Amino acid sequence: MSEHPLVEKYREFSPRSAELAERASDVFPGGDTRSSAHYSPYPLVMDEASGCRLRDVDGHELLDFMNNFTSLIHGHARPEVVDAVQAQVAKGSAYAATSLGQIELAERIVDRVDSIEQIRFTSSGTEGTLMALRCARAATGRQKIMKMEGGYHGSYELAEVSLVPIPGQAGGIDAPASNAIDASFPDSVLGDTVICPFNEPEHARNLIRAHADELAAIIVEPVLGSMGMLPATPAFLQALREEATAAGVVLVFDEVITYRLATGGAQERYGIAPDLTCLGKIIGGGLPVGAVGGKRELMQLFSPARENPVMHASTFSGNALTMAAGLAAIDAYDEAAADRINTLGDRLREGFNQAFLQSGIRGHAGGVGSLVNVHFTDKALNDSRQSFDAMLEAGHIAGLLHLTMLRHGVSSASRLMYCTSTAMGEADVDQAITAMHESLGELRPHIAEERPALLA
Ligand code: PLP
Question: In angstroms, what is the span from residue 422 Cα to ligand 1's centroid?
Fold first, then answer.
């Protein structure tokens, strides 16, 4: 079968990447070492990056709206971060000991996020959420975890249960099913997970009450990330807060992505305090990182000084290199910087929305602040079911838009997530908006032929 003409164009655009993808598929299953960064027919291979620009191995310059899945708050190679890392690496990268950098980065975060009184660093967001759940289980003596339908908390089974609400398998909206996303999930994990529909306060209240005696934690992203940057409503987070308190359940905010929205995190914007917060991405200044922090009485469960502490090891947790990069990045990310990139995000959303309107293609850009996601529907999206339905309706068109935007010099996640960084200015955002106009123009005749329902 011949390839789609827009995929052929992508191949013509990126011959060196194609060659390296071929070579990579010998040593990596599927040609890649990270499923989330993979897309068909093959991902562009990058050579270098600086500020908000990437250079691929075919020599194209691309505006980077992906920022390693939102983790590069300052884009690439911010001078203060480079200097801090260079100075630290010359002094050693990891000591298996407490260091000044660790204490300072912890102090910065404790100062900025009201609900975090104590913190522990981990090597990834995955480990951060895992340790939060272990802490909650130890604190409550209960086993079950409530997570949101469509919520993502890292690379382990419980963090991915019901990641996608597949029609016909998802169950009723009042009590969604616990579904595996691949063949690796043990039944025990599915049995230990209670799935809550996102942004449904009344259903959430009923579910928490029904499982009150067995729930250790409720874990929620204030903005549902992998389902397309869907902000929680204040009423929903408030319902979770109230019911968690009433049932003695630990409320965990996964702010691995959303911490960027304000120096005090999304929780500052909502004015709702969780018991534990998971962090990652931007607090590592571009190096691998994660963290769990929160109420002192809960965090004290990790203390080796107590009897039977929650075990938290991990060779690279709090390594000196990450701490140096993180400290430089966080010190350079003040309220003014957060406001500026949130406003750039608004500009990107508005520009993309104009591009959809003018193209006559049904679609819009949603999200909040510096977090933007394009959806092929003109309906506002409230939860993961609506978002997934829109993805199914768009079918292969979303992937084609991603490839076409790459050819027009703009990099995003293949699921059409874009985020702004402090390395960007209005001109960069406007360049991306122009690329969207051009890409939708190129896509329109194909949509008319292949998915006419997407035309307004
Ligand atoms: N939590 C959320 C909300 C995430 O988006 C991610 C990663 O994208 C994680 C946790 C896991 O973080 P990491 O990839 O650093 O393990």
Answer: 21
